[in-house]
Design brief:
With about 240 residues, the protein is α+β, with helices and mostly antiparallel strands. The protein is built from 5 helices and 8 strands, in the order ααββαββββαβαβ. The longest helix is centred in the N-terminal third of the chain and has 77 residues.
Length: about 240
Amino acid sequence: MNVKRIRFPMRLAMAWLVFLTLLGLYWMQLRGTHADHLRSAEQGTALRGDQAAHALAMQARSQLMKVEFLLEHLAHHWLDGDLRVYRDLIDVGQESIFNGALREMLVTDAEGNILFSSRRAAGGGSTGGSVAASDYFEQHARQRVPFLISAPLRNEATGEWMLQFSHAYYVNGVFSGVIVASVLPGHLLEGVANIYPERDNVVLMVLNVHGHDSKRVEELADRALYDAKAQGRNRVCVDD
């Protein structure tokens, strides 16, 4: 009888030991499965983010190529000297490319003097004013950069934020002036709201930044997030 009383607790202890071992193995397997699912979800989210960013980048690139083509086309037609046709071409660009976001189109001479403004009355001769002191004009005139995009600028008269697209034009290979389009930044937001509809989302667009400039990208992202929170709206930041 005494032997039986001793064996029973031993069998019970062995059963508990086997149970706890199996439970531990199951728990380890469960944690591993959870970790695999988490990694898979993270990878899926990162992939979707990369795909969305790529799609937006391609869309923005397509828009910028259309703007560059239009300004180059306008540069050629400016030399024809027909202001009525020139204004018609700007109207076509407003409807087909800028979707109403174009605020002003300027043409300058080689010294930066404004020869034409789409916001002023039609007519020949100088319209007054100069862009010679602007950074983009300096790059066009001295460095012979054909096409440039400015950082967002606030129009002091209207309070609107603007992007300026500029394209140099040449006569017989000699720099002769620039074509400048002042456009609302919302022009580049087409399609963004469909992918990122929330008001607290921020889209950061960065030009000419490569892998070794990751710190610069982080600084721009932090600044864009701060500005977006301060203004309570979505924000597009364009920087080079």
